[in-house]
Specification:
Chain B: Residues 4-279 form the FAD/NAD(P)-binding domain. Chain B: Keywords: 2Fe-2S, 4Fe-4S, FAD, Flavoprotein, Heme, Iron, Iron-sulfur, Metal-binding, Nitrate assimilation, Oxidoreductase. Chain B: Its cofactor is [4Fe-4S] cluster; [2Fe-2S] cluster; FAD; siroheme. Chain B: Siroheme binds at residue 684. The complex is a heterodimer of chains A (116) and B (817). By secondary structure, chain A is mainly beta. Chain A has a single domain (4-115), classed as Rieske [2Fe-2S] iron-sulphur domain (Rieske Iron-sulfur Protein), CATH 2.102.10.10. Chain A is 3% helix and 39% strand. Chain A is globular, with a radius of gyration of 13 Å. Chain B is of the alpha/beta class and 817 residues long. Chain B folds into seven domains: 3-110 and 242-302, FAD/NAD(P)-binding domain; 125-238, FAD/NAD(P)-binding domain; 325-399, 2-Layer Sandwich (Enolase-like, domain 1); 407-472, Arc Repressor Mutant, subunit A (Orthogonal Bundle), CATH 1.10.10; 491-542; 549-631, Sulfite Reductase Hemoprotein,Domain 2 (Sulfite Reductase Hemoprotein, domain 2, Alpha-Beta Complex); 634-790, Sulfite Reductase Hemoprotein, domain 1. A five-stranded parallel beta sheet of chain B has the order 5-2-1-9-21, with no helix packed on it. Chain B is elongated, with a radius of gyration of 34 Å. Classes of the chains: A mainly beta (116), B alpha/beta (817). At the A-B interface, strand 1, strand 2 and strand 5 of A face helix 17 and strand 41 of B.
Chain lengths: 116, 817
């Protein structure tokens, strides 16, 4: 059974923006896209450890503030020729209350589509 | 002996279910219907045309009295069922009418959600759900005045358009930044807003309704920001809720709606539910197509054991406002397992976006041209692979079947009189004729001789194709460097078009200039944000989320994710109080490093993000403001001590530096701007490698610019000599304003000067005093909005507090149950 942690409301995060959540795995960045999709990744760029939560969010990607690496929020993979991947976490949103919940479980990360 | 079927509710879903039932198994059931509304079944989707006057009630009736009679249906009009007894298998209406059943269908639909704000129960507050609502609105519309519609979704906008056509003034209040955000992406939402405004409907987005005003009837609406809008009626159209109370009271399983399985049965196998009151696999539906699919399943199940099941629906939406073509279907959120295909035609007001995943269309938004909506929806529902027609998919069904179009062949196929440049009315033969007759080889030549592509520029691609066609290999397309991968336009084109077409927001620019992505990227968004800010001071609202982090949180991000903080020290001057405050801040927040910068400032490095607002509050308390050391903005004005102390000083260089900095701080520029004022030609302030520098002499002030001491090293050029401090200030300000209006984002002054040429700059700010004054005034106007200390706004408890604290801490939290 997946443990879901309540972390706040969709409206706590600006559109095309991000907020941080402290966790046993360190900082997690929680993103909200222009179209209100919610994603969560480790707050550390695979390139040189930049805080992804501070980047510019566009489409379902974020551009790292330190050296402009572009990371896919869905898979955690770096876009373009770069290799590297950041850990992603599963999230789900209650459509009525807009409460966001986050799972720290490894295995739920792959099933975010199913959770929606 | 037929079984007894009782239906509670007489909307579109049970109506359709009965049609199927009578067709499949005539005579199997004796049907009794209870309808809370005092009338027969009508097409609720057509309420908007009734409201707008395009149809009458009689025209939207689905089943008239004769239909019920022919099928032996007993219809109780105006009788609301208020109890179901599942043991006795009867239903009872409010007036005591009781009917026994073998099978029961609950189709109680949904009720509009009324926002529980003060005044929401006043007479004149209406919903938009049934014919009674429409009749009340029509009655109100007769005496005119203003209607306020709360909710910019499908129903709200249809109500607004209808009331407008009936002669009322209409204001729509919508909580979200763009209209119909559940069905439309922001670009299409913007287009919709524009067309509705063009019809004279006022739209207020991000509007939080505080209260409905009035003593014994509605008189107005008050927003959270204090705005009061007069209103004779208020229409609440913020959403619907499944009406499941009756089912709940009868002990059936109810979540958000009445829970049904794939066979459309509730937790009691003799009781079916369908329509908007239903929750199926966690989903509630408010659109007609899924309800019809459910109706078919209910009818089949009623006929006996069968395989017919309801598996959920993909839905599509059309806005029923005459003259506005809009279609949306499926899932159109972005994702990296998805591809998007975007087509924008600014002059025709067309926006189309398809979202493709695993070679199938999963979402579509069409605006302005929706003829292919049904075709796309069909491809989506059938999961038809689209790779074969990928190239021309977005052009629609009529383009399919042939080979993919080669753009040059397409240009060749155009008739000679085809209009190429809509702005200037230039046809194909005029362009090809001019190319041949005058031996034109460049786009600039073609623009100069024919005017084609010289206005809005959106036909540039087509003109280039005609050149390639006419010149063959001799055509060498000009290397226009696009801003980024989201557009083919250069920075220069984008800047020109923002002004020429009065584009005033990022979604507007992206739509009108036919951006190829829906949300831009980290290159174009900050550039557009700057251009709009510089071109429309006081009008454009700065978009924080399109700014680089440093400008968003007003500090410089460091390699470890901490920040550095640099307060302004006017002209490089400081005081013991300021130094003491800085020392206290360093101690209090345990800031690891303090350093002097090249621009005569003090830099505190390694500040934690969470501490920033408190650090600023302390610095503000000592009278210091943001030094903008993080911005594409006026950074520093460095000075020497001048006539105050120096035995060689010729003018008050410190005073002039402070004056320039106090006048210009807070302004945003294409790239950073660093200045210096030296009091004599010995140049201790190193003014001759700055973006703008002043060398004081006995005769006055020598104004320099376009220096560089970074990646490139370049001495400044002399712009002019002036005699007074006033003239020096006016010239510097006008020069920077010219740069603000012409510079490309991230282009330093020396690069801008090289691109536009020294002569054009001198002509604007030196040779013509009147012009110089105009630039100076424009800068001064813009400063009225720009000179706010961002630190004071954000210091403890201020603006954007979400930036500075984590949203949650789940480090030690027990798992949620």
């Amino acid at each position: 059974m997946t443990d879901w942690h309540r972390i706040g409301l969709v409206t706590d995060i600006p559109r095309r923006g991000a907020r941080c959540v402290d966790s046993p795995f360190g900082r997690i960045a929680v993103f909200r896209t222009a179209e209100d999709r919610i994603f969560a990744t480790e707050d550390r760029c695979p390139h040189k450890g930049g805080p992804l939560s501070q980047g510019i969010v566009h489409d379902s990607s974020v551009t790292c503030p330190l050296h402009n690496a572009v990371i896919s929020l869905q898979s955690g993979a770096m876009r373009g020729p770069d290799e590297g991947r950041v850990r992603v976490f599963a999230t789900r949103v209650d459509p009525l209350t807009e409460v966001i919940e986050l799972s720290l479980d490894e295995e739920t990360a792959g099933i975010r589509e199913a959770a929606e | 002996m037929p079984e007894k079927l009782v239906v509670i509710g007489n909307g579109m879903a049970p109506g359709r279910a009965l049609e199927h039932l009578f067709e499949k198994a005539p005579g199997q059931y004796e049907v009794t219907i209870f309808n809370a509304e005092p009338r027969v079944n009508y097409n609720r989707l057509m309420l908007s045309p009734v409201l707008s006057g395009e149809k009458t009630y009689e025209e939207i009736v689905t089943h008239d009295d004769a239909w019920y009679a022919a099928n032996g249906v007993t219809l109780h009009k105006g009788k609301r069922v208020d109890a179901i007894d599942r043991t006795a298998k009867t239903v009872t209406a409010a007036d005591g009418t009781t009917a026994p059943y073998d099978k029961l269908i609950i189709a109680t639909g949904s009720s509009p959600f009324i926002v529980p704000i003060p005044g929401s129960t006043l007479p004149g507050v209406l919903t938009y759900r049934d014919l009674d609502d429409v009749e009340t609105m029509l009655e109100a519309a007769k005496s005119g005045g203003r209607a306020v519609v709360i909710g910019g979704g499908l129903l709200g906008l249809e109500a607004a358009a209808g009331l407008k056509l009936r002669g009322m003034d209409v204001t729509v209040l919508h909580l979200m930044p763009t209209l119909m955000e559940r069905q439309l992406d922001p670009a299409a939402g913007y287009l919709l807003e524009r067309s509705l405004k063009a019809r004279g409907i006022d739209i207020v987005t991000k509007a939080n309704t505080h209260a409905i005003l009035g003593e014994d009837k509605v008189e107005g609406v008050k927003l959270d920001d204090g705005t009061v809008i007069d209103a004779r009626i208020v229409v609440m159209a913020v959403g619907i809720r499944p009406s499941a109370g009756l089912a709940r009271a009868a002990g059936l399983d109810v979540g958000r709606g009445i829970k049904v399985g794939d066979d459309m049965r509730t937790s009691d196998p003799d009781v079916f539910a369908l329509g908007e009151c239903v929750e199926h696999r966690g989903q509630c539906y408010g659109l007609v197509a899924p309800l019809y699919e459910m109706a078919e399943v209910v009818a089949s199940q009623l006929c006996g054991p069968c395989e017919s099941h309801y598996l959920g629906s993909v839905t599509s939406t059309k806005l029923k406002v005459t003259g506005i073509d809009l279609f949306s279907a499926g899932d159109f959120a972005e994702g990296d397992d998805r591809e998007e295909i975007v087509l924008r035609d600014a002059s025709a007001g067309v926006y189309k976006r398809l979202v493709v995943k695993d070679d199938c269309i999963i979402g579509a938004v069409l605006y302005g041209e929706t003829a292919d909506g049904a075709w796309f929806f069909d491809l989506m529902k059938k999961k038809t692979p689209v790779s074969e027609m990928r190239e021309t998919l977005i052009f629609g069904q009529s383009y399919q079947g042939g080979s993919p179009l080669d753009p040059i062949a397409a240009a060749a196929a155009l008739p000679d009189d085809a209009e190429i440049c809509g702005c200037n009315g230039i046809c194909k033969s005029k362009i090809t004729g001019a190319i041949t007759a005058k031996g034109l080889t460049t786009l600039e030549d073609v623009r100069a001789h024919t005017k084609a592509s010289s206005s809005c520029g959106t036909c540039t691609g087509l003109v280039e194709q005609l050149m390639a066609l006419t010149l063959g290999d001799a055509f060498n397309p000009q290397a226009v460097k696009p801003m980024c991968g989201c557009t083919d336009l250069s920075h220069a084109d984008v800047r020109r078009l923002i002004v020429a077409k009065s584009l005033k927001s990022i979604p507007e620019v992206m739509q009108e200039l036919e951006w190829k992505t829906s949300c831009g990227c980290a290159k174009c968004r900050p550039a557009l944000n700057y251009y709009l800010l510089a071109d429309w001071p006081g009008e454009y609202v700065d978009d924080d989320q399109s700014r680089f982090i440093n400008e968003r949180v007003h500090a410089n991000i460091q390699k470890d994710g901490t920040y550095s903080v640099v307060p302004r020290m006017w002209g490089g001057m400081t005081t013991s109080q300021e130094l003491r405050a800085i020392a206290d801040v360093v101690d209090k927040f345990q800031i690891p490093s303090v350093k002097c910068t090249g621009g005569q400032r003090i830099d505190m490095l390694g500040v934690k993000k969470e501490d920033l607002p408190a650090v600023w509050a302390d610095l503000n308390a000592a009278g210091m403001v943001s030094g903008a050391a993080y911005g594409k903005a006026l950074r520093t004005v460095k000075t020497c001590v001048g006539t105050d102390w120096c035995r060689f000083g010729t003018q008050d260089s410190t005073g002039l530096g402070i004056r320039v900095e106090k006048f210009m701080w807070g302004s945003w520029t294409p790239a950073k701007v660093k200045m210096a004022v030296s009091g004599c030609p010995r140049n201790c302030a190193e003014a001759t490698c700055k973006d703008v520098g002043v060398i004081c002499t006995d005769a006055g002030y020598e104004i320099h610019f376009a220096g560089a001491a970074g990646l490139d090293i370049k001495g400044t050029e002399v712009l002019t000599q002036v005699k007074t401090e006033e003239e020096a200030l006016e010239t510097i300000v006008a020069l920077v304003q010219l740069y603000r209006e012409q510079g490309h984002y991230l282009e330093r002054i020396y690069k801008w000067a090289k691109r536009v040429g020294m002569e054009s700059i001198k002509a604007a700010v030196v040779d013509d005093a009147a012009k110089r004054r105009v630039y100076f005034d424009r800068f001064a106007f813009s400063q009225k909005f720009a000179q706010r200390d961002p630190w004071a706004d954000r210091a403890s408890g201020g603006l954007a507090s979400h930036e500075f604290k984590p949203m949650a801490d789940i480090s030690f939290q027990e798992a949620a149950e």
